[in-house]
Design a protein that fits this description.
Layout lengths: L10 E8 L2 H17 L7 E8 L5 E8 L2 H9 L1 H13 L2 E7 L7
Helix pairs in contact: 1-3
Length: 106
């Protein structure tokens, strides 16, 4: 379960994917498999969530890592490089961006 807290030293990564409704489910399946079989088993992984908009043209991915270096190391693995090439074929674009939590409410 993601922990959204400004007092944490965890690395937050938000990735947005843009696709067509025709490839949304295929992309969601690829991302789900990547998390279930590989990403969630990598050192430093804490939690993640996948969100789909109602038009099925965007997927937002929220993930947390103990350190930014853990996320970067996962991206550099041969398996993730192969998976990212497949993911790239299913969407118009995707961009992972690292964030620090500035404030929380509620």
């Amino acid at each position: 379960m993601p922990q959204i807290n400004a007092d944490t030293s965890h690395q937050t990564v938000i990735t947005t994917f843009e696709m067509t409704p025709g490839t949304c489910q295929d992309l969601l399946d690829e991302l789900t498999e990547a998390y279930e079989k590989f990403i969630s088993h990598q050192p430093g992984f804490i939690a993640a969530g996948l969100h789909v908009n109602d038009a099925q043209t965007r997927i937002a991915n929220y993930s947390q890592w103990k350190r930014r270096e853990d996320f970067q190391a996962m991206l550099r693995t041969q398996e993730m490089r192969v998976r990212n090439r497949r993911i790239n074929e299913l969407c118009k674009s995707f961009e992972p961006v690292m964030y620090d939590v500035a404030a929380t409410f509620g």
